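SAMPLE LOG
Freezer: B-3
Tube label: C17
Construct: single chain, 612 aa
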Amino acid sequence: MHFTPHTENPQGSRRDRQNLQKMFPYIWEYRGRVIFALICLVVAKLATVGVPFILKKIVDDLNLPQNNLLVLPLLLLLGYGALKLVGSLFNELRDAVFARVRYRAMRRIADAVLEHLHVLSLRYHLEKRTGGVARDLERGTSSVSTILNYMVFNILPSLAEFILVAVLLLGGYEPRFTLAVFATVVLYFIFTFWMTEWRMHFRHEMNTLDSKANAQAIDSLINYETVKYFNNEKLEMRQYDATMTDWENVAVKTQTSMALLNFGQASIIAIGVTLIMVFAGQGVVAGTMSLGDLVLINTLMLQLFIPLGFLGIVYRQLKYALADMDMLFKLLERSPEISDAKDAVGLQIRQGHVRFEQVSFYYQAERPILNNVSFEIPPGHKVAVVGPSGAGKSTLARLLFRFYDIQTGKIFIDDQDIAQVTQDSLRRAIGMVPQDTVLFNDTIYYNIHYAQPEAGRSEVVQAAKLAHIHEFIQRLPQGYDTLVGERGLKLSGGEKQRMAIARVILKNPKILIFDEATSNLDSQSEQAILKSLEEIAVSHTTLVIAHRLSTIVDADRIYVLDHGQITEEGTHTQLLAHKGLYAKLWHLQQEERQRQSVVPASVSAGATTHYN
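STRUCTURE (predicted):
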């Protein structure tokens, strides 16, 4: 079988060193514990290496005249037991002391990653599958614990023991023993490193497929209803199983190559130990070594090579953990697309005057969304933007929130360029009722209270009353403590919209955005929601992004957006008189409403005839 060394090794090694350096500050926070743990490690290893020397002395003394047998071996046996106890004590003490270091590092890195994910732009989250990110985060955080665990509990102890054994052999026995140990260890590490590097691309591929499969599974479960609507359970399973099949094949390659690696490691250790024991046996036969020396060398080799056998597994797992951690730090290195300017200041809201000035924007350069768009929303006014689907209406809200930076032009709030103020202050000044309200899988109270974590319960209840949802909540068995389910699926569209309105009321921003807030509701729910929206929009600067034109007939100004440009503007009456795109859309929607009102009547009549 031909093996090709992994071509990315040099770059991978540099990344591993960089990542370990990045992890160091998280560990050094408890430097006192780290140093004490290392002292415990050294003491434990000194005791462990001292055991074979006590054992040698015991064996040699057993060959002494019978009159000494009752004194020296007993003391040595007590010393043997004491060293065993000291070794165990300091090993456990090291583990207990280092636990705080290890788990604090895990916690801080997990916090840093989640915080960074919140900093990353909306574009990143729209392009990245949540399941894949979750699995990468899980593996990356666990890798920190794995690396610290192996470094402190396996690699450093084995290194310390190897140095002690080498010094003792070199100082007390012929150089050939030391050379044999060194040759065995060096050959073992060369073989392990080479084979592991060759096998690492299997691990990377497994990680990629694992994240992909996890993302597919989570996507299918999040979209459970859609899967059921289209009877696509088998399709979801085929896609998932295809990925898992690829993962299975790579996993099999990983396991079979591991078997070859394990056998090679065991062969090197067996040859090395056999050679050293042959040297020791020759020394005993020649009279240059005692039987105790034979026992000492045999015990030292067992203490050295048994951990060394595990060290091969540790190295492989360490490389896997480093690969996982690399994904984590690459995520942390990813620069946010939107960041505050160096001299950014807090937004000073005075009147809430919003102005778009010659704004052009695209997600991809080949597909422009907005082209030289200019309009304003005077303080306290209600301005609506309407137009066909895909015209760029919802993009206006995202730009006002500064989820994206515009290519040309400027957006002002009270004559302050939003690109020059902090994102935090900007978003605190704006409230949003989206088209599709997504709720946390928590209680109704938590979801409303989320808008203003400092608010008291009475303020939450008052917001619910103003949103006309308080009575509905009270009728529920658990009231405000009712769980809403994943993404709020236990609530109807109208109930979720009222929850969104309650949140905006509690937040109480100066600027409000309603992004097609009633487009998915029936006429009755729509009228109730519209009434709530009108009540909270009083004395607020309001931008309404509308699909149903009947919801914005009272707007102070209406802008028609088509193909990324404002093609018409005016009041409802003026736009109808203009007989342009707005008038066309209005008449189409009025005809649709008339058809919808006729169908229920005929159905009702048919139903009456049937039951009579």
